[in-house]
């Protein structure tokens, strides 16, 4: 998948709109009971609305015309009672529907989150985190109105329109035709607008996503931005993205806003026509005054739901782009997944074999080419080589973060594709250069390696990687709160916590991308000792930058151009005076 950045719009696959709509409303199936009660409440509300003009007609034609005040009071009381009932129903309907739509949003967000977690590295490689967040937060939120209004508007308003149209046709056919005459025109125009509007809202969501991606990237790298005094430059970029965002919104909004005047004009023309013909019919005595008054009420009762429906339709077009973006991600099949009959990987001893492994991230750009090696349990391997040689790639493949195109990777003689990913990765300890800690206490962070670890185990783990002393010296000890980037701690201290988190999970194979940064001497020594403690008795792969680590390794693999070009102990490699010799000389 090509890499997307905040500078480019994401491309959304064209899907048939009705499929997206159906898929969205399928979530309602779990709320049948609530939907039915809302529909029942709506039927009461709609009936009251429809009865009101009839009561007015009766009041005018039967009571006011004959000075029958008792009848007028009776009908007035009846009107008050049914309208009060209707108000109670409206309130109840709002409560139920907000609950249903909120729960559906939670479900969609949860499904999306769980699904994204299953996706392989290449999904994350190809899109900025900000764009993923935009889908989980913004796009999901954009569905709220559609869900909320679907039951409240769609079904009841359709029923109202049909019921009112029938009543009008029965009352007076000609007046009814005059009232409805603008309907075909309205439907035609709306259909025309929605095609364009949908594209513009898609564009708006993309611009929104770009802005999210940029702000996420910018704020995550704020230290770099500030240290390069690049705030002006990033503000300019933000301003540019903001302008694009604004422009796309205005363009889409303008189009959507045409909906209203068109409905209002159609409504107005219908009303004028009814009055025009109504007055004439009144003159000829074909209709009564009460009927004309009732009819005018029905016109607004007919056009009101049409207004609501066009509003709903507008919302649907506006927010469908959000639903499409959500379902598009949900439809991405995880590249790395368990095969149908994947077995649980038993407790391993730590033998690792690469058999003629070739790998490419992008088609036809070979990163590893026919790599083979065998590592015995407990061996410590240092990977060295020029930048971009393929060292990180080798260690990523052992944990099956990517699938290889050719060859086999075996652990304890079992092909890693034949076992479940969870059972494979749970036996690996992986530490990257960028130590990621999560917000919470230090204790929580160490426990992440073994969720059921006791406090004693946590302390023991910290002690074994020499992290205990500095943690104890913190005011709150193991309960010290740290934020997501571990900012209150030094680089070395963060690493020590990560070591404790790894050692508590007791992995058989340890993968370590050693940090290049040099840390203050005391913590540096602790980190060195921590690494040694970690490596003890485990198969380990270390992308080594420290000479001490390299020299202590059982074997050193020199990686260059996607191949292992030299292999052996430090001493042996120095003797052959190849690439390792040169790298080593350059370092010392
Ligand atoms: N996610 C990715 N998508 C596409 N290409 C990638 C990806 N990760 C790495 N590469 C490319 O694969 C090659 C090997 O990268 P790798 O990270 O394995 O090198 P390395 O030896 O670990 O380098 P360094 O010492 O600089 O970390 C490089 O050319 C790199 O550009």
TrEMBL record:
List the keywords (alphabetical).
ATP-binding, Membrane, Nucleotide-binding, Transmembrane, Transmembrane helix, Transport
Q: Which residues cross the membrane?
A: 35-60, 72-90, 151-170, 176-195, 258-279, 285-303
| Membrane topology per record | Multi-pass membrane protein
What is any Pfam family matched here? ABC_tran
Task: Give all residue intervals belonging to the ABC transmembrane type-1 domain.
Answer: 38-318
Query: Localized where?
Result: Cell membrane
Q: Name one GO molecular function term.
A: ATP binding
Query: According to its record, what are the GO cellular component terms?
Result: plasma membrane
CDD domains named in the record: ABC_6TM_YknV_like
Annotated ABC transporter domain residues: 352-586
Matches recorded under PANTHER family: ATP-BINDING CASSETTE SUB-FAMILY B MEMBER 10, MITOCHONDRIAL, ATP-DEPENDENT PERMEASE MDL1, MITOCHONDRIAL
Protein name, per record = ATP-binding cassette subfamily B protein
User: What is the taxonomic lineage of the source species?
Assistant: Bacteria, Bacillati, Bacillota, Clostridia, Lachnospirales
């Amino acid at each position: 998948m090509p890499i997307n950045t905040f500078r480019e719009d994401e491309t959304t696959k064209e899907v048939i709109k009705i499929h997206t709509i159906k898929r969205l409303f399928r979530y309602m199936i779990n709320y049948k009971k609530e939907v039915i009660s809302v529909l029942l409440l709506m039927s009461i509300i709609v009936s009251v609305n429809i009865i009101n003009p009839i009561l007015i007609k009766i009041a005018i034609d039967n009571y006011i015309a004959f000075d029958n005040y008792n009848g007028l009071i009776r009908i007035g009381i009846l009107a008050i009672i049914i309208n009060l009932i209707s108000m109670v129903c409206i309130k109840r309907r709002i409560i139920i529907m907000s609950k249903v739509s909120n729960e559906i949003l939670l479900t969609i967000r949860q499904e999306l989150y769980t699904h994204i977690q299953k996706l392989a590295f290449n999904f994350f490689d190809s899109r900025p985190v900000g764009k993923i967040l935009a889908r989980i937060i913004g796009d999901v939120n954009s569905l709220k109105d559609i869900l909320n209004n679907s039951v409240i508007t769609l079904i009841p308003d359709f029923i109202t329109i049909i019921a009112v149209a029938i009543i009008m046709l029965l009352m007076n056919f000609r007046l009814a035709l005059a009232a409805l005459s603008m309907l075909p025109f309205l439907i035609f125009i709306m259909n025309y607008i929605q095609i364009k509007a949908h594209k513009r809202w898609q564009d708006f969501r993309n611009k929104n996503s770009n802005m999210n991606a940029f702000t996420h990237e910018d704020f995550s790298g704020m230290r770099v931005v500030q240290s390069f005094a690049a705030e002006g430059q990033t503000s300019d970029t933000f301003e540019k993205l903001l302008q694009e965002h604004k422009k796309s919104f205005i363009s889409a909004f303008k189009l959507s806003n045409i909906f209203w005047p068109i409905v209002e004009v159609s409504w107005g023309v219908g009303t004028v026509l009814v009055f025009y013909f109504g007055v004439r019919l009144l003159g000829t005595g074909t209709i009564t005054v009460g009927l004309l008054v009732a009819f005018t009420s029905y016109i607004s009762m007919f056009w009101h739901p049409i207004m609501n429906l066009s509003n709903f339709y507008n919302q649907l077009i506006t927010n469908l782009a959000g639903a499409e973006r959500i379902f598009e991600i949900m439809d991405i099949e995880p590249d790395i997944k368990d095969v149908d009959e994947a077995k649980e990987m038993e407790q391993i001893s730590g033998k690792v074999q690469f058999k003629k492994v070739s790998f490419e991230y992008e088609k036809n750009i070979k990163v590893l080419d026919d790599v083979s090696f065998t590592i015995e349990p407990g061996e410590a391997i240092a990977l060295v080589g020029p930048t971009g040689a393929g060292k990180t790639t080798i260690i990523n493949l052992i944990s099956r973060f990517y699938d290889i195109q050719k060859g086999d990777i075996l652990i304890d003689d079992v092909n890693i594709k034949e076992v479940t990913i969870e059972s494979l990765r749970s036996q690996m300890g992986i530490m990257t250069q960028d130590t990621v800690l999560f917000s919470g206490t230090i204790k929580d962070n160490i426990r992440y390696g073994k969720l059921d670890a006791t406090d004693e185990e946590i302390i023991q783990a910290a002690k074994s990687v020499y992290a205990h002393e500095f943690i104890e010296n913190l005011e709150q000890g193991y309960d010290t709160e740290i934020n997501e980037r571990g900012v209150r701690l030094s680089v070395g201290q963060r690493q020590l916590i990560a070591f404790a988190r790894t050692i508590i999970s007791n992995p058989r194979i340890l993968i370590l991308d050693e940090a290049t940064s040099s840390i203050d001497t005391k913590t540096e020594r602790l980190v060195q000792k921590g690494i040694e403690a970690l490596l003890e008795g485990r198969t380990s792969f270390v992308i080594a930058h420290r000479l001490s680590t390299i020299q202590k390794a059982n074997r050193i693999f020199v990686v260059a151009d996607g191949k292992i070009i030299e292999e052996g102990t430090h001493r042996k490699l120095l003797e052959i005076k190849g690439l390792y010799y040169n790298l080593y000389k350059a370092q010392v």
